[in-house]
Amino acid sequence: VSERTLVLVKPDGVRRGVVGDVISRLERKGLAVVAMELRTLSRETAEDHYAEHRERPFFGELVDFITGGPLVALVAEGPRAIEAFRALAGATDPVKAAPGTIRGDHALEIGENVVHGSDSPESAAREIKLFFPELG
Ligand code: CMP
Q: Which of 3, 31, 51, 65 has its Cβ near the most Cβ atoms within 10 Å?
Protein backbone atom coordinates (compact mmCIF):
# COMPACT_ATOMS: atom_id res chain seq x y z
CA VAL A 1 0.00 0.00 0.00
CA SER A 2 1.51 3.23 -1.19
CA GLU A 3 1.21 6.65 0.40
CA ARG A 4 2.20 10.15 -0.73
CA THR A 5 3.82 12.98 1.20
CA LEU A 6 4.67 16.57 0.35
CA VAL A 7 8.32 17.45 0.78
CA LEU A 8 9.76 20.95 0.60
CA VAL A 9 13.45 21.71 0.29
CA LYS A 10 13.12 25.15 1.85
CA PRO A 11 14.91 28.29 0.57
CA ASP A 12 17.82 27.70 2.97
CA GLY A 13 18.29 24.20 1.53
CA VAL A 14 18.23 25.48 -2.05
CA ARG A 15 20.67 28.30 -1.14
CA ARG A 16 23.05 25.83 0.45
CA GLY A 17 22.88 23.41 -2.45
CA VAL A 18 21.46 20.36 -0.68
CA VAL A 19 18.56 19.67 -3.07
CA GLY A 20 20.46 16.78 -4.64
CA ASP A 21 21.34 15.34 -1.25
CA VAL A 22 17.70 15.40 -0.09
CA ILE A 23 16.48 13.73 -3.29
CA SER A 24 19.28 11.20 -3.14
CA ARG A 25 18.45 10.25 0.46
CA LEU A 26 14.76 9.72 -0.23
CA GLU A 27 15.47 7.72 -3.40
CA ARG A 28 18.06 5.61 -1.58
CA LYS A 29 15.43 4.86 1.05
CA GLY A 30 13.09 3.58 -1.68
CA LEU A 31 10.68 6.49 -2.03
CA ALA A 32 9.85 7.66 -5.56
CA VAL A 33 9.56 11.27 -6.72
CA VAL A 34 6.24 11.55 -8.57
CA ALA A 35 6.08 15.37 -8.99
CA MET A 36 8.64 18.13 -8.49
CA GLU A 37 8.95 21.87 -9.07
CA LEU A 38 11.27 24.78 -8.24
CA ARG A 39 9.20 27.82 -7.32
CA THR A 40 9.03 30.93 -5.15
CA LEU A 41 5.91 30.94 -2.99
CA SER A 42 3.50 33.87 -2.83
CA ARG A 43 2.60 35.04 0.69
CA GLU A 44 -0.91 33.72 0.04
CA THR A 45 0.27 30.17 -0.72
CA ALA A 46 2.72 30.26 2.21
CA GLU A 47 -0.02 31.39 4.62
CA ASP A 48 -2.29 28.61 3.31
CA HIS A 49 0.42 25.99 3.65
CA TYR A 50 1.20 27.04 7.24
CA ALA A 51 -2.43 27.89 8.20
CA GLU A 52 -2.23 25.74 11.36
CA HIS A 53 0.61 27.97 12.66
CA ARG A 54 -1.22 31.29 12.07
CA GLU A 55 -1.50 32.11 15.79
CA ARG A 56 2.12 31.27 16.62
CA PRO A 57 4.46 34.14 17.52
CA PHE A 58 6.88 33.08 14.76
CA PHE A 59 4.26 32.98 11.97
CA GLY A 60 5.36 36.25 10.30
CA GLU A 61 8.98 35.17 10.39
CA LEU A 62 8.05 31.75 9.00
CA VAL A 63 6.18 33.28 6.04
CA ASP A 64 9.01 35.79 5.36
CA PHE A 65 11.51 32.94 5.35
CA ILE A 66 9.59 30.47 3.19
CA THR A 67 8.79 33.17 0.57
CA GLY A 68 12.34 34.59 0.68
CA GLY A 69 13.73 32.57 -2.23
CA PRO A 70 13.01 29.62 -4.48
CA LEU A 71 12.19 26.28 -2.89
CA VAL A 72 11.78 22.80 -4.30
CA ALA A 73 8.38 21.20 -3.74
CA LEU A 74 8.05 17.51 -4.49
CA VAL A 75 5.71 14.62 -3.88
CA ALA A 76 7.35 11.42 -2.66
CA GLU A 77 5.55 8.10 -2.83
CA GLY A 78 6.06 4.72 -1.20
CA PRO A 79 4.95 2.52 1.69
CA ARG A 80 4.44 4.72 4.80
CA ALA A 81 6.00 7.63 2.89
CA ILE A 82 4.92 10.24 5.48
CA GLU A 83 6.62 8.53 8.41
CA ALA A 84 9.55 7.39 6.27
CA PHE A 85 10.38 10.92 5.15
CA ARG A 86 9.98 12.36 8.66
CA ALA A 87 12.50 9.80 9.87
CA LEU A 88 14.93 10.87 7.14
CA ALA A 89 14.37 14.56 8.03
CA GLY A 90 14.97 14.17 11.78
CA ALA A 91 13.56 16.30 14.59
CA THR A 92 12.16 19.78 13.78
CA ASP A 93 14.82 21.36 16.00
CA PRO A 94 18.02 20.62 14.04
CA VAL A 95 20.14 20.65 17.20
CA LYS A 96 18.03 17.75 18.54
CA ALA A 97 17.91 15.99 15.15
CA ALA A 98 20.19 12.95 15.14
CA PRO A 99 23.36 13.15 13.07
CA GLY A 100 22.72 11.12 9.93
CA THR A 101 19.33 12.77 9.36
CA ILE A 102 18.87 15.63 6.88
CA ARG A 103 18.39 18.27 9.59
CA GLY A 104 20.95 16.65 11.87
CA ASP A 105 23.54 16.91 9.12
CA HIS A 106 22.66 20.24 7.50
CA ALA A 107 20.99 22.65 9.93
CA LEU A 108 21.41 24.47 13.22
CA GLU A 109 18.36 26.72 13.60
CA ILE A 110 14.71 25.72 14.06
CA GLY A 111 13.50 28.42 11.66
CA GLU A 112 15.92 27.29 8.94
CA ASN A 113 15.63 23.54 9.07
CA VAL A 114 16.17 22.71 5.35
CA VAL A 115 13.13 20.51 4.76
CA HIS A 116 9.43 20.14 5.46
CA GLY A 117 7.51 16.88 5.32
CA SER A 118 3.76 16.42 5.80
CA ASP A 119 2.95 15.22 9.32
CA SER A 120 -0.25 13.19 8.73
CA PRO A 121 -2.33 11.72 5.88
CA GLU A 122 -4.75 14.66 6.26
CA SER A 123 -2.02 17.30 5.96
CA ALA A 124 -0.37 15.39 3.09
CA ALA A 125 -3.65 15.44 1.14
CA ARG A 126 -4.16 19.15 1.85
CA GLU A 127 -0.57 20.14 1.05
CA ILE A 128 -0.33 18.04 -2.14
CA LYS A 129 -3.55 19.65 -3.38
CA LEU A 130 -2.14 23.11 -2.61
CA PHE A 131 1.17 22.55 -4.43
CA PHE A 132 0.16 20.11 -7.17
CA PRO A 133 -3.59 20.48 -7.82
CA GLU A 134 -3.17 18.55 -11.09
CA LEU A 135 -2.20 15.36 -9.20
CA GLY A 136 -5.80 14.96 -7.95
P1 CMP B 1 7.95 22.75 9.34
O2 CMP B 1 7.98 21.27 9.44
O3 CMP B 1 8.07 23.34 7.98
O4 CMP B 1 6.57 23.26 9.98
C5 CMP B 1 6.46 24.46 10.71
C6 CMP B 1 7.73 25.19 10.82
O7 CMP B 1 7.78 26.22 11.77
C8 CMP B 1 8.81 24.24 11.28
O9 CMP B 1 9.13 23.36 10.24
C10 CMP B 1 9.92 25.19 11.71
O11 CMP B 1 10.82 25.47 10.67
C12 CMP B 1 9.14 26.44 12.06
N13 CMP B 1 9.29 26.73 13.47
C14 CMP B 1 8.94 25.95 14.50
N15 CMP B 1 9.24 26.56 15.66
C16 CMP B 1 9.80 27.75 15.35
C17 CMP B 1 10.32 28.81 16.10
N18 CMP B 1 10.32 28.79 17.44
N19 CMP B 1 10.83 29.88 15.44
C20 CMP B 1 10.81 29.91 14.09
N21 CMP B 1 10.32 28.91 13.30
C22 CMP B 1 9.84 27.85 13.94
A: 31
